Amino acid sequence: MTDVAFPPSLWAATAPHRPPAPPLGGTAETDVAVIGGGFTGLSAAIEVARNGGSVAVLEGKAVGWGASGRNNGQVIPILTAAEPAAWIKRYGAAGERMVQLIGNSANILFDLVREFDMEAEAEQAGWFQPAHSPGRVKLCQSRVDTWQRHGFPAEFKTAEETRDILGSDFWYGGMFNPTGGHINPLALARAMAKTAEDLGATIHENSPVIRYERVGAQWVIQTATGTLKARALILATNAYTGELVPSLAPRLAKSIIPVLSWQMATQPIGDNLRRSLLPGRQAVSDTRGDLRFFRYDARNRLITGGAVIGAYDVENRVRAKAARSLGEAFPELGTPEMTHVWSGYIGMNWDRFPRIHRLGTDGWAWIGCNGRGVAFGTALGRELARAATGTDENELALPVTEPRPFPVHSIARRVAPTYLAWLKRKDLSEPKL
Asked: A GO CC term (predicted)?
């Protein structure tokens, strides 16, 4: 077997090697079939296998090749805009269970890493959301109050405490959650795959699914080289649902807009500066729509990223923008050199609520991470596995909806990058609470 080529990211350069698994060949049967070898699919496979079920994962490229292996690696126990009250108002009891799942999502991920001793550069150092304006301080306080009411350890930090956490007075206060942190995402995906295989799961890489359908009491999933039959099916392809095989699930694919997310890494930061800049090694992403985010990796590189409007010379422009943003917040860095720059899709939808869909009898899917898929996708994979193995839906955090495709998806996809201009304008105004 030959390895699949990965984008030249820092994670591809540092994650432990994984020998490729063979493609699906011939006809096979399993209890649960999973399409997609990212965090959700692998988490689901682990959950099924650890409870004695048979499960097979079909991955179109290689484990972690998509968004799960290309993101910033921040483990964040909240979503971008889907606040707890909105979940409960929209979905009732299922929304309440979803709030609990979201709030527990970082612990679910880190507990899994610890339980199976996964080699993933995992640091549960906390996640911090600093406020970029005085009005956002009130927003942070409101979010702290909300999550505390639901039983989670959110903490409000004053401007002085924020300065101590970050080593900068660029922000005004913020929300801290000690359950968050960061990982090497590709290393985690590969470690999750190994754990699933050790538990008895089967993984087939280089196996893009051409079609799936319900035939009698089974799901029949076809690739170019084989057929997999299963009682239950989990579709876990998220932002890449329409990328490898556009005809796989077109209604789902057209319900999100895949948006390129750019990540990058600095040179390793010297020890003296590292001890004063973000000394607690938390993961940080602030309150801007045009987000500023950063954290250290295991080699003391700052991992950051950004976005720019337009398609001209994007890599160089986003590299320069991210370097300026770091230098603005941390003048002692100067304008840091970026040694690695890479990108991958995130799945955005119109209201930034992740969606759970029923494909048919014993068939499940979710889509729309909206940039928060690391912790959430891992936690949701466990939940989907429980649904696929018979847990009563009324016990699960699975508020099911029908897909809502964008009316003119191709046009929406082309204009989506201009959304950044609206976000930048919104960042200049204070929110109404």
From this structure: cytoplasm
**Vertex 233: Cα angle to 227 and 234 (nearest 5):** 120
In the predicted model, is pLDDT for residue 417 greater than 80?
A: no
Residue ranges of E strands in 64-122: 74-75
Q: Are 75 and 378 in contact (CB under 8 A)?
A: no
SS3 assignment for 364-421: EEEECCCCCHHHHHHHHHHHHHHHHCCCCHHHCCCCECCCCCCCCHHHHHHHHHHHHH
Strand partners, 343: 262
Structure confidence by residue, pLDDT tens digits, 207-260:
999 999 999 999 999 999 999 999 999 999 999 999 999 999 999 999 999 999
Q: How far apart are CA 164 and CA 383, in angstroms?
A: 38
Work out whether the CA dihedral 142, 262, 103, 106 comes out positive or negative: negative
Q: Which residues contact 35 (CB under 8 A, 6 or more apart)?
A: 41, 57, 58, 209, 212, 221, 233, 234, 235, 236, 237, 248
CATH 3.50.50.60-classified regions of the chain? 20-124+180-256+350-402
Classify residue 336 by its DSSP letter.
P
168-177: pLDDT as tens digits = 999 999 999 9
Q: What stretch(es) of the chain map to CATH 3.30.9.10?
A: 127-178+257-348+406-432
Which residues on neighbouring strands pair with residue 130, listed in sequence order? Answer: 174
Q: CATH for 127-178+257-348+406-432?
A: 3.30.9.10
What is the dotted CATH code of the domain comprising 20-124+180-256+350-402?
3.50.50.60
Answer whether 100's CB lies under 8 Å from 397's CB. Answer: yes
Bridging pattern class, strands 181-182 and 74-75: antiparallel
pLDDT band at 433 (very low <50, low <70, confident <90, very high): low
Of 180, 130, 136, residue with least CA distance to 157: 130
Closest CA to 259 of 245, 235, 246, 243: 243
pLDDT tens per residue across span 351-379: 999 999 999 999 999 999 999 999 999 99
